[in-house]
Design brief:
This protein is mainly α.
Length: about 450
């Protein structure tokens, strides 16, 4: 990576991490705080936790497309300001409805697609995967950090204080966007990183992609519902004060990250993606049954949590990789956009339905809800095809007519290691799906525009 690419990737990852840390900090503590709010019910607690997911799901793709028209930074800065306003609304509210409104406003600052588009503007194609991976790692780090810091901050400043802190974090993100993120030379449409209106039909009719979309929806539905119940189990059943909950979360999360690594190696290096994937879904279902049967014992609960988070982290890591492998070459950005929308929708559904299950059937009902959702996911995923070991490769071919584009696509597809080739004439770009073990980029140099 060049210095500009590295600066862009790190600063954008910082913006995303600040925003997601603000969203996640209340996850391990809100169920403890919300019982003191006016008008509260278990279902409304869940709606408040997941409300950001609904507005984020509805707005992130439209805002990404808006950034193609008015620029990336105005959308990112505007979204962070809306997020900060939502945080203030939640901080000042003494009713559950006010917090729901604030959380919905937080989600309305939907900058995910614009951040990814700006990352694509600032990086060359061969470096883009590294930038996206860094942003993805920042999200994971924010989630892990929030589960540990949330209980501590709740003890120090309370949940209203956490909302004020998230407003400050959002404004810090504005500063990063304005003063640290490089200005791109130009904003272009990147089919490998952005949603394209003409590709939605193809993506939404692809059974393999829809299975993965259902998977990420279920995964985030489950994690949201778990944290409606887990803080209450630790406090009310096991007698652990809220300020000490981090002492459970921290060792469990660290151990689960280490435990998932061998399974990622099996999936990616040994070509056992399907087996590892289905096994992780099954393990997640069993872990939630463990929550149901073992939550009266701290040792039993910790073991079940370790198993659950190992499966969760593993699935969170491999699902985007599977989407990239399955998506058609020119539809990767659109497929990832729909996938991300499904993820946020899952957070809202998990909050609403998990809260309803808590009110109707108690804490155990929440865990059974998650277990049942995982079993359904396992049934849906069992019909998946084995993912190929394919990656996306872009080639600048310059301006071409339609006939020339079709002819070039045929020649490119005949090259060793190229499984799919689509040439978009108006962009002068060829989108390829290649087998990295057989593909030699130098073999296509004759088709590339020098200096592109």
């Amino acid at each position: 990576m060049t210095a500009t690419e590295r600066r862009g990737a790190i600063s954008l990852a910082g913006i995303y991490a600040l925003r997601m840390l603000g969203l996640f900090l209340i996850l391990p503590v809100f169920a403890l705080y919300a019982e003191h709010l006016q008008g509260v019910t278990p279902m409304l607690v869940g709606v408040a936790i997941g409300a950001y997911g609904l507005t984020q799901a509805l707005l992130q793709i439209p805002f990404g497309m808006l950034s193609d028209r008015i620029g990336r930074k105005p959308v990112i800065v505007g979204g962070l300001i809306v997020f900060a306003i939502g945080s203030v609304v939640a901080a000042l509210s003494d009713s559950i409805y006010g917090v729901i409104a604030g959380r919905a406003l937080q989600g309305s600052g939907a900058i995910a697609a614009a951040v990814m588009a700006l990352a694509a503007d600032l990086t060359r194609e061969e470096q883009r995967t590294k930038a996206m991976a860094l942003i993805g790692m920042s999200i994971g780090a924010a989630f892990l950090l929030a589960l540990v810091l949330g209980p501590v901050f709740n003890h120090w400043i309370g949940v209203p204080g956490i909302f004020w802190l998230t407003a400050v974090l959002a404004l810090a993100g504005v500063g990063v966007a304005l003063f640290l993120v490089p200005r791109p030379k130009a904003c272009h449409l990147h089919r490998d990183a952005e949603a394209v209106a003409g590709q939605f039909g193809r993506v939404l009719s692809d059974a393999g992609l829809l299975r993965l979309d259902f998977g990420i929806l279920t995964l985030h539905m489950t994690i949201t519902s778990v944290f409606l119940a887990m803080p209450l189990v630790l406090r009310d059943i096991l007698g652990m004060p809220g300020v000490n909950h981090w002492k459970v979360y921290l060792p469990v999360l660290l151990a689960s990250v280490a435990a998932m690594v061998p399974f990622i190696i099996l999936a990616e290096k040994r070509r056992m993606m399907k087996e590892v994937f289905l096994g992780a879904i099954l393990v997640m279902a069993l872990a939630q049954l463990g929550f149901y049967f073992l939550h009266q014992s701290l040792a039993g609960l910790v073991i079940a949590m370790l198993v659950f988070f190992t499966a969760f982290n593993l699935l969170e890591a491999v699902l985007p990789s599977m989407v990239s492998k399955v998506a058609p070459a020119q539809s990767k950005g659109t497929a990832l956009g729909v996938y991300s929308t499904s993820q946020f929708a899952g957070a809202f559904i998990g909050g609403a339905f998990g809260g309803w299950m808590h009110g109707a059937y108690g804490l155990g009902g929440v865990f059974l809800f998650g277990a049942g959702a995982a079993v359904l996911w396992l049934l849906v995923a069992s019909g998946m095809s084995r993912p190929g070991n394919l990656k996306t490769h872009l080639l600048h071919v310059g301006p071409l007519g339609e006939d020339e584009s079709r002819a070039l696509a045929m020649r490119l597809k005949a090259a060793p290691g190229v499984a799919e080739a689509v040439v978009v004439a108006e962009e002068g770009v060829a989108y390829l799906k290649v087998d990295p073990e057989r593909f030699d980029p130098a073999a296509l140099d004759e088709f590339s525009v020098a200096g592109a």
